[in-house]
Write a structure and sequence with these properties.
Length: about 250
Amino acid sequence: MMTKHFFSDTAALLGRSLRHIARSPDTIITTTIMPIAMMLMFVYVFGGAINTGSDSYVNYMLPGILLITVASGIAYTAFRLFIDMKGGIFERFQSMPIARSSVLWAHVLTSLVANLISLVVVVVVALLMGFRSAAGAGAWLAVAGILILFTLALTWLAVIPGLSAKSVDGASAFSYPLIFLPFLSSAFVPTDTMPGPVRAFAENQPVTSIVNAIRALFTEQPVGADLWIALAWCAGILVVAYLFAMNTYRRKIS
């Protein structure tokens, strides 16, 4: 009965959140503008000067742009949570006979839907810019799975400042380091061109393994250990972020 309650309550609250997104499509437009602008700049301004060994620079850097798209999008999750907290929405939900965790899950699933739409838009623009992949359906599904897991991990991370920030700027500003992280990875240039300390960091942070796994899937190359390292990073961040987010939520509503 409790499980049934949770799913029905989450579905109802998810519908509420998705209606807000549908009434404000500018959220998705804003989320996609920066990654698309970066993609245009890197391909048409810097692309000719960067030697990646790839036939097309847009093919090389698209995985990194997809991760930046997600990092940009989850800032809105923190923002929406903060607004609901300050607006007293959570207190009103507490007075209703609904599963408490369904409130957070509705925000998280809304973030997932919105980010998936943004990712599709970015891929369409990349196709118009010359991105091509001979990958089969299985490889595309694997890429989608990695991006979904990555989005869930970062979204639960966004829940923490969304619940605990003191200002609306603080709620969304946490995403800035996440947007910057792909620049210190293999997303835009090979790591072997970097100075020693920077290279050591770049090769041992989560974005590099995720980017390398997605790139290998797109190009039908052997994925190797990168896939398992990428999944381990995403799953680890997801579990830790979820536990911290739920603990923060319990403290806030107690």
